[in-house]
From TrEMBL:
GO terms for biological process: cell wall organization; peptidoglycan-protein cross-linking; regulation of cell shape. The keyword Transferase applies. Residues 92-215 form the L,D-TPase catalytic domain. It comes from the Bacteria. Residues 32-59 are annotated as: Disordered. GO terms for molecular function: peptidoglycan L,D-transpeptidase activity; transferase activity. This is Murein L,D-transpeptidase. It comes from Companilactobacillus suantsaicola. InterPro entries: LD-transpeptidase, LD_TPept_cat_dom, Transpep_catalytic_dom. PANTHER family: L,D-TRANSPEPTIDASE (PTHR30582), L,D-TRANSPEPTIDASE YCIB-RELATED (PTHR30582:SF2).
Length: 223
């Protein structure tokens, strides 16, 4: 082989060696980059999924002194604390919330007492601002409805729309199926049902002309 051939062979060999080394370098470098990227991806915290908002039920909003609704009976006061002394709250008023099936005794924006209630089915309880009327009594019975109640107090139309206890029969025996709806859903013909102690307190303590505000819409699906 002449010198020119030898030089050509050596040049080709060197080229192969250089290209091979470069390929090895690139492959190694690419492998390291891939590892670094993989480590970066592992080190980056995955975005946390937002926890769904907890649905706040009416029970969660009730006064801490309320008797738990599961244990509550129509023969009980709604709260474990004493009823307010209205002589100390001359500007007290009654807030009836149809949405929550609650009656609140208020002084301005301060809640004095909370009561489980049951308002009119099919939105039968009138809404608006009313005042306690002079008419009240210890017991009534309506023959057409075959229902009566204790401790009634009128707030509209002078004996038509009342606060009163859960309904009774003519002998004064409570209708248990209706009494169980207190604080849960509407069950009246338009009046506002309360437990016996709560209603007796209103009958004995709430003065004529006290303001009564009734508002809201009941939606069982939201409870």
């Amino acid at each position: 082989m002449n010198k020119r051939g030898i030089y050509t062979t050596i040049l080709v060999a060197l080229t192969v060696i250089v290209l091979g080394a470069g390929g090895i370098y690139l492959a190694t470098n690419n492998s390291q980059s891939t590892k670094v990227e993989a480590q970066d991806q592992k080190s980056k915290p995955k975005p946390k999924k937002k926890a769904p908002k907890k649905k706040i039920s009416q029970i969660d909003k009730d006064d801490k002194d309320m008797v738990p609704l599961k244990k509550f009976k129509y023969t009980m006061s709604s709260e474990k604390k004493a009823y307010p002394n209205l002589q100390e709250h001359p500007n007290a008023w009654i807030d009836v919330d149809i949405t929550t099936q609650r009656v609140y005794i208020m002084d301005g924006k301060t809640q004095l007492y909370e009561m489980y209630a049951s308002t009119g089915e099919d939105d039968a309880t009138p809404k608006g601002t009313f005042h306690i009327e002079p008419e009240r009594g210890e017991f009534f019975y309506t023959k057409p409805l075959k229902l009566g109640a204790f401790y009634w107090v009128s707030f509209k139309d002078h004996g038509v729309y009342l606060f009163h206890t859960s309904p009774t029969d003519v002998q004064g025996n409570y209708v248990e199926s209706i009494a169980k709806t207190l604080g849960k859903k509407p069950s009246s013909h338009g009046c506002i049902h309360l437990s016996t102690p709560d209603c007796k307190w209103i009958y004995e303590n709430v003065p004529t002309n006290m303001t009564v505000k009734i508002h809201g819409t009941f939606n069982e699906a939201r409870r």
